[in-house]
From TrEMBL:
The keyword Protein transport does not apply. One of its GO terms (molecular function) is oxidoreductase activity. Pfam families: CCG. This is Anaerobic glycerol-3-phosphate dehydrogenase subunit C. Keywords: 4Fe-4S, Iron, Iron-sulfur, Metal-binding, Repeat. The keyword Protease does not apply. It comes from the Bacteria. The gene is glpC. InterPro entries: Cys_rich_dom.
């Protein structure tokens, strides 16, 4: 076999996650693989500036009796895995030993395996189960009157103190809930537009609203409808859905991911059969269907079909622009935009399509900030990791504050809110909202 050397020019290869194999949950085999990978990381240390997994690992090694991985108690391996929130940045931007290198290092998916083994052996706390049950919590919290009560309580210092004892940090931003969900808001906006294919796009999109979009940022649905309809793209929401499964995957609960897949894929497939392309307003959900589910279920042809039809919304619009089908008659300049590029958008390897599109607006400058916010949905919320999320997010927050731009935008509402609080700037605005503003809609 030809040796794969560091610094090669071949594209990284992602291997399927063999989570349904008995060996996947064999702790001795897991620990042997972790020791092998940690030893490589110890000799490299290129990822030390990313998440807290790497400082945690290197501290364990440097404080051990041997100053090597063999001096670290195997029970402490989990401390490293607990700091990994599967942003994929080490794999995509730092590690020189990813496949096809002969060492085949896939740090995020090894940490996923460690999380899955822990969940398989111990389960999860009630807090973690609730935080990762976004569709259940959102469904309850958006009941009329209940939503008002929940939002009021989340602003109450006494209640937040009680919530902190349950493991939710009092300083963490928690999302608002709205009984007028995205589905309810866009229903009156539906209109039929004759689809006009362009390039690889059909001109018809079905939007997977996502838990966060439907329950916490429902106004985004109106922005999406306005912008896509302005561009003569027929848009509908997927008939029925549940959480994409990303929160459960980050918990290591892969059986719940499978159950979510079994509910979502048929719904999405039904839209494909009607000639729709697929989009979602949150990068993590797009990534779940584009990358993670295909790696978890590599032999499922329906998952592959959905993968091939899923697009980031700005990726989709720029494909239309490439084919000469994007409306570039903008009414309102946007000025200076400080734009945070979410990690789960970066790892899709599509380039900075959001920034490219916004730059088409006259008298508009976009400054992308390509550094992790540290939020990760639940990492910044938990008592034990909130302060670390703040530390990770401070560098990008500093850049945003220094920019003093007209707008601060992020494709990820949660990451944006976390950064905006640290930067002490106005709440973030979604790029699709900015695009709607540019069109004067």
């Amino acid at each position: 076999m030809k040796e794969k050397r560091e610094g090669g020019i071949e594209a990284p290869t992602r291997h399927a996650i063999e989570w349904q194999s008995p060996d996947f949950y064999d702790r001795e085999k897991l620990e042997a693989e972790i020791e092998r990978v940690f030893d490589v990381c110890h000799g490299c240390r290129r990822c030390v500036s990313l998440c807290d997994s790497f400082p945690t690992l290197f501290d364990l090694i440097d404080e051990s009796e041997t100053f090597e991985v063999d001096g670290v108690d195997k029970k402490d391996y989990q401390k490293v895995a607990d700091q990994c929130y599967l942003c994929d940045m080490c794999y995509m931007t730092k590690c020189p030993y990813v496949p096809p290198h002969e060492w085949e290092i896939d740090f995020p998916h090894l940490m996923l395996r460690a999380k899955a083994v822990k969940f398989h052996e111990e389960g999860a706390s009630l807090r973690d189960k609730l935080l990762s049950s976004t569709d259940f919590v959102g469904g309850v919290a958006t009941i009329p009157i209940v939503d008002v009560t929940v939002n009021t309580m989340n602003k109450n210092s006494t209640f937040r103190g009680i919530l902190e004892k349950a493991g939710v940090h009092r300083g963490a931003i928690v999302p608002k809930y709205d009984s007028k969900t995205m589905r309810k808001r866009v229903a009156p906006m539906a209109r039929t537009i004759s689809a006009e294919p362009a390039g690889e796009t059909t001109g018809k999109v079905a939007m997977f609203t996502t838990c966060y979009g439907n329950y916490n940022s429902p106004e985004l649905g109106e922005d999406f409808y306005k912008v896509f309809q302005k561009n003569n793209i027929h848009i509908e929401v997927v008939g029925k859905e549940r959480c994409c499964g990303m929160p459960k995957m980050e918990l290591g609960d892969l059986e719940s991911v499978q159950r979510a897949k079994e509910e979502n894929i048929p719904q999405l497939l039904a839209m494909l059969e009607k000639g729709f392309d697929l989009i979602a307003p949150v990068p993590s959900c797009v990534l779940m269907f584009k990358q993670e589910l295909p790696l978890l279920f590599p032999d499922d042809p329906d998952v592959a079909k959905v993968r091939d039809a899923f697009y980031d919304p700005f990726e989709y619009l720029m494909l239309r622009h490439k084919a000469g089908k994007l409306n570039i008659e903008f009414d309102t300049p946007l000025g200076d935009i400080s734009y945070h590029v979410a990690c789960h958008l970066r790892v899709q390897n599509i380039g900075l399509k959001t920034a490219e599109l916004l730059r088409l607006v006259p008298d508009t400058q976009v400054a992308p900030e390509q550094r992790c916010s540290g939020h990760d949905g639940t990492y910044a919320v938990k008592v034990e990791t909130h302060d670390k999320a703040v530390k990770i997010g401070r560098p990008v927050a500093k850049k945003v504050k220094q920019a003093n731009a007209d707008y601060f935008a992020s494709d990820c509402p949660m990451a944006g809110a976390h950064i905006a609080k640290l930067a002490e700037v106005d709440k973030p605005i979604h790029p699709m909202t900015l695009l709607r503003k540019a069109y004067g809609l």
